[in-house]
Specification:
InterPro entries: HupE_UreJ. Keywords: Membrane, Signal, Transmembrane, Transmembrane helix. This is HupE/UreJ family protein. The protein is mainly alpha-helical and 196 residues long. It has one domain. Helix content is 78%, strand content 0%. The protein is built from 8 helices and no strands. Helix 3 runs parallel beside helix 5, helix 3 runs antiparallel to helix 8 and helix 5 runs antiparallel to helix 6. The longest helix has 26 residues. The radius of gyration is 16 Å and the shape is globular. It starts with a helix and ends with a helix.
Length: 196
Amino acid sequence: MLTKNRSRAMVAAALLLAASAAQAHPGHGVDGLAAGLMHPFTGLDHLLAMLAVGLWSAASARGAQRARGPLVFLAMLLLGGLLASAGLVLPGVEAGVALSVVLLAVLMLGARHIPAPAGLLIVAAAALLHGQAHGVEWQAGASFAAYATGFVLGSAALHGAGLGAGAWLQRVQAWAWRAVAALIGGGGLVMLATRL
């Protein structure tokens, strides 16, 4: 028992340390499909958020309804990116992105108790912020369509991974679900602290 708890604590600490060091938006320019595809995988905040949406969707809905969370996220992600590429950027996007990771973890913990419309509203708001972060990095003069196609496809892949992991986690002990949500939320809190 002590070994299991120690292992869990070590994994949690490693993830939190990685979260504090990771910056999703290091200021590099992006200008194509490959850069868009990689973006969701190279920033811990994006990675955690995309997985959390898939995890929440797996726990909060059944059958085809599970696609609602990822579809809402992808639509609002694209809208946020389009707005940012046009120069309409919300204030505090970086802190908002980190806060969205925390809120998505809370959503995971309340997956069966938070009404679906409220959950989808949280997902939509998070996606708009993440889209803004993607759009800010786009280089003017490059193809926004190629870059946006990439970040939407990369995000969809992570949502799929979250849906698969969520389906698996529903079959294991409840502490595993809570531990994953706590790790995601803890990572978001550390990122938020570094961005305020």
